[in-house]
Amino acid sequence: MHNIDRRLLSQAQQGEETAMAAVIARMMPVIRKGAAANTAPGLDFEDAVQEGLIGLFNAVRTCRDAQAEQFTAYAAACIRHAQMDARRTALRKKHAPLNFSVPLAAADAALPGPEERAIAEERCADVLARMNTQLSELERRALRLTMDGVAADKAAAALGITPRAVQNAVARARRKLRGTSS
To answer: What is the pLDDT of residue 106?
Structure first.
């Protein structure tokens, strides 16, 4: 960790982004060390880093000219206090149901939006059109039966062919729909 001089601190306080980025870069080891020490259920490492950054911003904002010589120590204390406060808040009993609950299934949370649904519908329409133009009647019927979960022997009985012929028809249909011809 490098010391932060008065000029750099003054520039960061005036809102210069490059100066603030330099202050953050110099204090990042302190922030990361504190984040590693203050993780808890409900406060993961990234959240603790964010809390440390908030503490650093507060230190830059509240530092007075007389404290500029000891800014590094002052900022480290502000970072540590912000992270410890976040840890205490996360460990409060009132947050236990949130911290120790089982998350909902990811599939339910990742439902497609309107754009994804439209793209999927276009792809489905494209595949159906290709099925109607590229596949023979036997290949189409065999593929639809197997896609519906019908076993090869039952599909063969429904189509009046052998189970092996059903498997061959489905294999040809898949090759054609992938773009490779037999």
So the answer is: 53
b/e for 118-138, b at 16 or more Cβ within 10 A? eeeeeeeeeeeeebeeebeeb
**CA-angle at 138, arms to 134 and 142, nearest 5°:** 100
Radius of gyration (Cα) for the chain, nearest Å? 32
Domain range summary for the chain, segments of one domain joined by +: 6-99, 109-178
Residue with token string 């120790």: 100
Judge whether 95 and 89 are in contact, CB under 8 Å. Answer: yes
99 — pLDDT class (breaks 50, 70, 90): low
What is 6-99's CATH topology?
Rna Polymerase Sigma Factor; Chain: A (1.10.1740)
